[in-house]
Amino acid sequence: MKRWHHVVFNSLLMILVATWSPFMRAQSNAPGTLQGAVVDPKGQALAGAAIIVHNESNTAIHRVATNNEGRFSINGLADGSYTVEIVAPGFAPATRSHVRVGADASPSLSVTLTLASVAEEVTVSAEDNTSLAAQLSPVKALLDAGSARTEITNQFIREFTSPVTDFTEIMQTAPGTFSVSPNGVGLGDSDTSFRGFIDGDYTVTYDGIPFEDTNNPTHHSWAYFPGPSIGGVDFDRSPGTASDIGPANYGGSIHFLSPQLPPDRLYRLSDSYGSWNTNLIDGEFNSGLFGGKNPKANLWFDAHHMSSDGYQTFNYQTRTAEALKFTYKFSDKTYLTVDGNSVILDANTPNNNVTAAQIAQHGNNYLMDNTEFLPGTTTYDPFYYKFYFNHIPTDFEYVDLNKDLGHGWKLDVKPYVYAYSNHQYYQNSDTVTDTSAIDKMNQYFKFGEVVSASSASKYGVFRTGFWYEYASTNRFQIKSNPVNELDEAGIAGINFHENFWTNSAQPFAEYQLVAIPKWTITLGLKDAYYNMSLKQYADNGHIVGNLNGAPYVTNDGNFNSWLPSFEANYRIKPNWSAYVQYGMGSQIPPSSVYDINQTSGSGASGVTVLPKPQVSSTYQGGTVVKLDRVSFDADYYYIHFENSYVAAPVANSYTYTATPPSNTTGVEAEGNIAVTHKLSVFLNGTLASAKYVAAAANPVLGAPATPSLWVAGAPHDTETEGVTYQDRNWSLGFFNKRVGSQWNDNTDANGNLLHQAIPIAPFSVANLFLNYTLKNGSKWDQSKIRFSVNNLFNNNNNTLTTAANPGTAANPYAPNGGDILTLVPGRSVMVTFQLGFGSKGR
């Protein structure tokens, strides 16, 4: 069935064809001058504000920055009418339309910018106009930041990542982050970790809308928002302020932004081919502004198909995706955005990675076989690739209405829907039997709304609003026969089956004070409420048990956290700022809090005391400096966070007890050095200590006392070294990411965690990118050749070990051939040929 955004696209395309005219009005050559001044709500001069002048066809023809007195002047403008856009970080963009310039008309504009509301996407390039190093930097920090934040630019994504990249690979250049996809970049489901926070410990949003699984707040990089859908990233390594909504601001927030729509028409068609028979065909359509003499509409559409054999043997991947974005400007005060994304993914990826013994026998890229039977026998091969598949369609759509209500008030309303359906089938043991496979389904549908209102005055900005989301989920795992894919009938075949419904609500309020010279202070409070209602059906004892003949058991839980926030930014100089922050974040409990045997409850809940939401407290401070040849930022942080809960049987029921909390401290720094106007050197690094708080013996769980040991998956240090060369047509980038030593946990024979058990050695991955883009103003403008090499030096280090055997306090880990390993994929090379076609002479 056609999704509704397909219909919207077809309708909009018909309107576009009917109304679009390539005719551009001519202008005389008589010179003119435009000048003016830009100030903030307090009347203070705004240095570095970007002034962008558009002609009558809405083509940006001049771009300058205001000087230290907030003034600007543009000479040599042809006689005509212009639109002037004024942009500065932290402020709402301003527009002056129908500005007449000519030999007899030299207007002087006086512009007062208001502070931006939380819903506005503010361009960050304006503050870089006075810093060559910041302009050349692949990632950026903001002078008005109140926390440790990194902005990843659209240019970095398009020039210095693989054509098949996903959002975890895009994050690799940010401080402290790392991720690994064993089948190759963009060819599997991978996770990003930072500061010891793993996937599920932080919020991810797309254009301000949180997206995550319903059984826990994790994400799927292979099923949502592939590279062409992402126009930039705002990465906040903190709980943020009260207006940062989401289910897991416990660790921080990764905000992905959709592509910005250009004012000019452009078509792109590209074909990428590379290692492991990887092929990506991508088509992109940019309408440019259209709709009569004063065009107000803009449309962007991208569709691609990707196929690959993958680095790992017989781990085939195919993906078909499309993305659409439409904007309409009703007036200078009212904007509409419609956005839709869909992905259909098919893969042969099994449920687990390979073992150490398999790698030793078959090589680093082994995963599955292509033989149905073991050699010389009629016994089925349990690693036959046709015994494994994933079919995952996803959808994500929203409508955004942004309205300036006057008198300083602005309103942003953003309803959305999205859906995920993962039908997975996999062989689940080393021997094929009638019941050795698992037929698995995880399917959910969500709708929600993000509403925010702001009121700006000369003293500051008051923001308030809420996030609400409802989700319905169906999940099951049934034993099955991998040969004929027939599920085992009756309760004996059901490992688990559940339906559940969740409601999330987060009202917030905050005030951003700017009345004190050089200071910006933000105070806020958010209430994070979460409810889950479950219907868990009787099973074979794998989860809830047979319930003494009852068909199902129902459970309901409510969770609530009040989360205050404070941040302050002090502008020491126009190009130098410092900040401090305190924030609390929370993480919603997973649905598995009820995944315990409830047969003893005779159909009633067997859980007497539910866990509280996990809460973190973050304290950090930092500085941002942007000189002409050097841009630099650094921060220090201390985080105290509660960890996951475990269930323990108590008097024919269950209660939850928290595992030890953790304390993490660290320093992060990143900077870019402009060697010349084209060549720059990029560096970042982190040094951290992440340890569990020492715990006494737990009589309820029978757990022994634990000393202060290292948090699993938290590297001691990370470093990135990069060199970029960016000319008009050529761009070259080399980036090396090193991840320092870390530890994985193990368990003892009773299931108790053993911290600091499995050592993981440091590893590095280096990537190389070379691009040539045609930029000659012809109709073939933006035609391009891309060459990329991932893992240039072909490292195959192990990055994660799951032990096969339990350990002991004296010997927490003994290597075993059954240990499951996650290796860095081998070197991959890809070449892209892109044909660009646009308006001649743009």
Question: Would you kindly provide a written description of the structure presented here, covering whatever features stand out?
Answer:
With 842 residues, the protein is mainly beta. The chain has two domains: 1-113, Immunoglobulins (Immunoglobulin-like, Sandwich), CATH 2.60.40.10; 266-838, Maltoporin, Chain A (Beta Barrel), CATH 2.40.170.20. It is 5% helix and 50% strand. The radius of gyration is 28 Å and the shape is globular.
- Going by CATH, the homologous superfamily of the largest domain would be TonB-dependent receptor, beta-barrel domain
Mean pLDDT: 86
Query: What CATH architecture of the largest domain do you see?
Result: Beta Barrel
Backbone CA Rg: 28 Å
**CATH fold node name of the largest domain:** Maltoporin, Chain A
Oligomer: single chain
Strand content: over 45%
Most strands sheet: 22 strands, antiparallel, barrel
Question: Low-confidence parts lasting 5 or more residues at pLDDT below 50?
Answer: 1-30, 117-126
The percent range for helix content is: under 10%
> How far is the N terminus from the C terminus?
40 Å
Write the layout of secondary structure elements.
Blueprint: H1 4-19, E1 31-39, E2 50-54, E3 60-65, E4 71-78, E5 80-87, E6 94-101, E7 108-112, H2 132-136, E8 139-140, E9 149-152, H3 154-159, H4 167-170, E10 203-206, E11 209-210, E12 232-236, E13 253-257, E14 266-274, E15 278-286, E16 297-308, E17 317-331, E18 334-347, H5 356-362, E19 389-406, E20 409-427, E21 437-456, E22 460-481, E23 486-487, E24 494-513, E25 519-537, E26 552-573, E27 576-587, E28 607-609, E29 614-626, E30 630-641, E31 645-650, E32 653-658, E33 662-674, E34 679-692, E35 717-726, E36 730-739, E37 742-747, E38 753-760, E39 763-773, E40 784-790, E41 798-802, E42 820-823, E43 828-838
